[in-house]
Amino acid sequence: MNVGHAIDPPVQAVPDRVALFVDGRATTYRQLDAAVRRAARALSAAGVGPGDRVALVNLSSLLSVATIFAAARLGAASAQMNSYLTPGELGQLSTLVGARVGVAGDPFVDGLATAVAGPVLSGSDILGPDGSGTGPDVDGEATPDAPTVGDADDTALILFTSGTTGLPKPIEISHGVVADRLAYYGKPIDPEADQVVDMMSAPIFHIAGTLGLFVSLHQGKQMVMMPRFDAGQWLSLVESRHVTQTFVVPAMLRRILDHPAFPTTDLSSLKALSYGAAAAPVDLVRRAVAALPGVDFSNTFGQTETLGAYAALTPEDHRRGDRFGSVGRPLPGVEMAIVDQATGQAVPTGEVGEFLVRAKQNTTAEWLHTGDIGHQDDEGYLFLSGRISDTINRGGEKFGPVEVEEVLRTHPAVTDVGVVGVPDAELGERVGAVVVTAAPVSPEELVAHCRGRLATYKAPEFLVFADDLPISVLGKLNRPALRELLADAPHVSRA
């Protein structure tokens, strides 16, 4: 399958169903197909052909969706870039992937124009003056279509890693890999059944956004898109659009539960909620499950290179409620190994090492070093300690920040916390914590709270309070920003 044609089944079976709802506008599958065809001709006219890369900078929108599918149909690949990046950063990424043509939403056209050597097409260039992508020039049987090219091994999409420790890394995803994932999640479209309504809460340039988009549209679902996440708007859209399922990152879930409108919003349509992309605090998961008893929760654990989840904590696991600290068990067809970082040798069950994954869904056929560290229990459940890049090395004692964060969250005054290694001339790093509280508490009390629950060397030595934790646009904890907040923090005695 050329994945640019992933919408063909619903276009044929349910053409008048709503495919997208974004910014108050509904687009049917028939209209979406017309928009993709128009986008393909606009890209072709700009010189885009097989093997080319199209820099795409925009929020979740019809423009973004039409460009992604159109580029794939032409044998090219859209390279979705974070709209929060500067023109200089966009230029670096464009050079990295060799993009010479760009597509951008109106607020981002000028920035992208300085980043690519060739033309940058705007929304009106791609979709026409009214932004719908339909009209007499494209919506009809007599309208010639741009030729479809692209083989299974050709690149269909380019996504970027989050880049929290440097320039984002491009990940090329082939038509074959996406098609396999669509087959894994696929099921026949039933024109008589009620339509499932999905909601894209994550940014479209995140793997959860793009993969969710392809899966939903291929199955004939309605995709409700949020250009930018807002907890109040999320609640309103779930109620008004009767959203059935969605994916959120833990920071979003906390803001939803904390929103003043949460208790009075009708969320009865919501049947399934998956979360991931960052470590989910146990207290948050327990609170969410209690607040939404009719919802099936899933923790999906993966990364861009694994094209989404390679492990999951299932709804049944959530109902059982005894492993909220786990990210679940490997999915069928996934091979897992946990190895010592220094020797590369497998570690015994229960010991901490790096997660290695091999699966057909991966962007590489070799064992993938995920950069995640943790352990697996005797029933196969995975427990995350953190990322290798986040590992704290205090005088040779190495450990992840997650276990320190979980202990601090058990204090009744603490609502959220982020832990990092603070550079230190004597020990290399010492432990620092940025804490959000709901009641007054002293740094000394929080350090004492860790005593008896953690090894002495893991207790924080630097601690500051904040109204909120710094979060990236993907909803992940921004650990470099935590280090900046801790730069001038006073030392807290452990005595």
Give short descriptive properties of this protein.
15 helices; 495 residues; 9-stranded mixed β-sheet; Rossmann fold; GMP Synthetase, Chain A, domain 3; alpha/beta; 6-stranded mixed β-sheet; single chain; 24 strands; globular
Structure overview:
Residues 138-144 have low confidence and may be disordered. The radius of gyration is 23 Å and the shape is globular. Among the domains are: 3-228, ANL, N-terminal domain (Rossmann fold, 3-Layer(aba) Sandwich), CATH 3.40.50; 391-485, ANL, C-terminal domain (GMP Synthetase, Chain A, domain 3, 2-Layer Sandwich), CATH 3.30.300. The protein has helices at residues 8-13, 29-45, 62-73, 87-97, 109-113, 123-127, 175-185, 207-218, 231-241, 250-258, 282-291, 315-320, 401-409, 443-450, 479-485, and strands at residues 18-22, 25-28, 53-57, 77-80, 101-104, 120-121, 155-160, 170-174, 197-200, 222-225, 245-248, 272-276, 296-303, 308-313, 329-330, 335-339, 353-358, 368-376, 382-387, 392-394, 397-399, 414-424, 428-437, 462-465. Helix 7 packs across helix 8 (207-218). Helix content is 28%, strand content 25%. Strand 9, helix 8 (207-218) and strand 10 (222-225) form a beta-alpha-beta unit. It contains 15 helices and 24 strands.
Q: Helical proportion?
A: 25-40%
Please tell me how large the radius of gyration is.
23 Å
| CATH H-level homologous superfamily name of the domain at 3-228 | ANL, N-terminal domain
Name the strands of the widest sheet in spatial order: 2-1-10-9-11-12-13-14-15
Shape verdict: globular
Strand content: 25-35%
CATH fold topology of the domain at 3-228: Rossmann fold
Low-confidence stretches: 138-144
**Using DSSP, what is the number of strands?**
24
CATH class of the domain at 3-228: Alpha Beta
Mean pLDDT: 91
Number of helices: 15
Q: Name the CATH architecture of the domain at 3-228.
A: 3-Layer(aba) Sandwich
What structural class do the secondary elements suggest? alpha/beta
Largest sheet: 9 strands, mixed
